[in-house]
Write a structure and sequence with these properties.
The protein is an alpha+beta fold. Helices cover 21% and strands 29% of the residues. Strands 5, 6, 7, 8, 11, 12, 13, 14 and 15 form a nine-stranded mixed beta sheet that branches. The protein has a four-stranded antiparallel beta sheet with strand order 2-1-3-4, with no helix packed on it. The radius of gyration is 20 Å and the shape is elongated. Belongs to the pseudouridine synthase RsuA family.
């Protein structure tokens, strides 16, 4: 419930409970999964009562080299370093980008909205610009669309097209409607293709636009609504 109220991540909330720092109606809580009614139960951490926070939705232009996690045991920079000094409450990533990937990362303290966006049956389009280490041909693009079986998972793109090419490499625009781990990198590796850069430029109708690398901004109401409508429509369909 602490995470649903937007006060901390599930991991942090469980840690607080394990340390005996959380009370519900004046009694120390011991079970992170205990049922709680937010409309009447009083939840406190270190004696300070918490309540539902203002819902915040934002996009971050993640640079390469940052990991999408609240903390890293290896001491690597996390995306939260880019939010330091912002005065924002705790926010959770909506999906992930790996360390080497860049671009649009959504964050929010609305766990219900985030769950809708990331649900396996949502099939929300995610658009990437990908620089590869060779010049593609029509056969390769068709093969990426047809997909492969990799360790029991079906990997394929929803659509792919060439954006531009140089002498030895090219940029592709790839659209996915599912979120398997390192899907694009694994799919291209199956064709012995290395990814030089991978940038997510859009989630659904929400686009990264001209947002500077390392910068963030809040989503406007139309963007929030568009993502929710798109995910609700996909789940009903």
């Amino acid at each position: 419930m602490i995470s649903k109220l937007g006060a901390a991540s599930r991991t942090q909330a469980a840690k607080w409970i394990g340390e005996g720092r959380v009370t519900v109606n004046g009694r120390v809580a011991h079970d992170p999964e205990m049922p709680i009614d937010a409309t009447c139960d009083r939840i406190a951490v270190d004696g300070a009562e918490i309540s539902a926070r203002e819902r915040i939705y934002l996009m971050l232009n993640k640079p390469r080299g940052y990991v999408t996690t609240t903390s890293d045991e290896r001491g690597r920079d996390t995306v939260y370093a880019l939010l330091e000094g912002s005065g924002l409450p705790w926010l959770a990533p909506v999906g992930r980008l790996d360390k080497a990937s860049e671009g649009l990362l959504l964050l929010t303290n609305d766990s219900v909205w985030a769950a809708r966006i990331t649900a396996p049956d949502t099939e929300l389009d995610k658009t990437y610009h990908v620089q590869i280490d060779r010049l593609p041909d029509a056969a390769l693009l068709a093969a990426l669309h047809a997909g492969i079986d990799d360790r029991g998972e079906r990997l394929a793109v929803k659509s792919v097209r060439e954006l531009r090419r140089g002498d030895r490499n090219a940029w592709l625009e790839i659209v996915l409607d599912e979120g398997r781990n390192r899907q694009i990198r694994r799919l291209l590796a199956a064709f012995d293709i290395a990814v030089l850069r991978l940038v997510r430029i859009a989630v659904g109708a929400v686009s990264l636009g001209t947002l500077a690398k390392g910068a963030w901004r809040t989503l406007d109401p139309d963007e929030i609504r568009a993502l929710q409508i798109a995910s609700d429509t996909s789940q009903r369909g």
